[in-house]
Design a protein that fits this description.
Layout: H1 2-51, E1 53-58, H2 67-82, E2 87-93, H3 95-106, E3 122-127, H4 134-145, E4 150-154, H5 157-198, H6 201-209, H7 214-249, H8 259-290
Antiparallel strand pairs: 1-3, 1-4, 2-3
Length: 299
Amino acid sequence: MANKTDKLNKGRLRSSNITVVISISLVLFLIGIIGMIVINANSYIDYLKEQMVIEVFFKNDRNKNNLIKNEKAQLNYLDSIQVNPYVKKAKYISKEQATYTAKKDLGVDSQSLFEEDIFPASITIALKPEYTDSVHIETIKKQIQKNVLVDEVKSDSNLLTQMNKGVRKITLGISILAGIILLIAVSLINNSIRLKIYAKRFIIKTMQLVGAKRLFIMKPFLIQSVILGAIGSAIALVLLFAVNYMLIRYNILPPIVDYSNHIILSLFILLIGILITTVSTWFATWRYLKLKIDDLYYS
């Protein structure tokens, strides 16, 4: 009879641990999905911002005798532009390249529609993401326009402004959703831990009655909670990386990977899994240590 009881108790304990691990894994997986959305969204937003370029058109001197001199001055100006902190990359487009591109875009091979030298040389400047707001762009444009070689500076500021507004709205929405899911996660994990401790409330009180110190009683529960939290976090991370891999593998998402942010997300999930289970175990165990024996039947 005693062996059957022990087996039954071990089975219940194993079932309880599995339930806790599954609960932790699922809620941390949801948190991780939100985190990955944020990481990927930021990467894609930065990528889109880098596609926003400033076009610098040089003055078009049609005197062929000055062609080499002008091109050398323009290339020197390119070198001076590239050292600025706001420049991610800058590309020089010569008059010949501009003419070739125009012909290709228009589908024209002959010289009959326009002259060779009507297109000026230019520089396209891709900005670093942190400099793609309208204030920085206008400041940069004014600075570039002061150079005597420059004829005109262009950028699509309206599109950038609309994109930044959209980004702020999306970021706010994702942040609110992440906060709600985090609260749900804490609640679900806490309830699972409380049910687990509830099943052992009489054992806890018995140990206290025979003289065991509170920390001694709580220690094995806390150690087990750390282990369960770590296992649940590890399962959630495996599921997350499997999902991320499949999305990239089948070209659902472009392979823009920010490994540093993924490492931070992994550590966050691991720590939050362990923290929530440990804190929940502490409070649940402490609650039954403070209760009187008669209250155990109604708690």
